[in-house]
Design brief:
187 residues; alpha+beta; OB fold (Dihydrolipoamide Acetyltransferase, E2P); 24% helix
Length: 187
């Protein structure tokens, strides 16, 4: 370890030269070799340093410290823990999703429980003891008008018969003979 006095210092460039009685020539010093110091060096400061020979034959000061100047205290910060806090935008999206799901559920619930006034269409084509009328009377209490109109929406022929007789705007009896879904192979 050598000790020398800072002969010159260019603060705007961040370097200078140290003159030491131990060495024959002045030694180059850069601000990066004084990282741990609490202040920048000034001309006339005494500096403790080690010498490193560069490839071009010149010497450079490394591991430097300024005499009488305290080293910076290294403050180790605890790593920041980024909490997953919801931004107002995320909260708004969540609220809108809940409202949308609630509206969908309410609509479905009201469709299944709402009953429209039944329209009684007189059945003039089917005889009173026919198979169609018997099937209808057995399951009459299980069905309600809920807005379905087409055969593809029905689960049974009895349900289709109920819809034709009691629900408006059905489109299941094309030839208006009172027998719904005649071309549907499911029934």
């Amino acid at each position: 370890m050598h000790k020398g006095q800072l002969k010159s210092w260019k603060d705007d460039k961040g370097f200078g030269f140290i003159q030491s009685s131990d060495l024959t020539q002045d030694t180059f010093i850069h601000i990066s070799s004084l990282k741990g110091m609490s202040r920048k060096p000034k001309t006339g400061d005494f500096i403790y340093f080690e010498v490193e020979k560069q490839a071009n034959g010149k010497t450079k000061a490394i591991n430097c410290r300024i005499e009488g100047v305290a080293a910076k205290t290294i403050q180790r910060h605890k790593p920041r823990i980024h909490r997953n806090t919801s931004s107002p935008k995320n909260k708004l999206v969540l609220i809108l999703m809940v409202i949308g799901i609630g509206a969908f559920a309410f609509q479905r619930l009201s469709l299944s429980t709402a009953s429209t006034p039944a329209q009684h269409i007189p059945n003039t084509t089917a005889p009173s003891g026919s198979l169609l009328n018997r099937a209808f009377s057995d399951t009459n209490s299980n069905f309600s008008c809920d807005g379905r109109q087409h055969c593809s929406q029905m689960t049974s022929r009895a349900e289709a018969v109920y819809f034709i007789k009691h629900c408006p705007n059905t489109k299941m009896d094309g030839d208006r003979d009172g027998i719904p879904c005649e071309n549907d192979s499911r029934f």
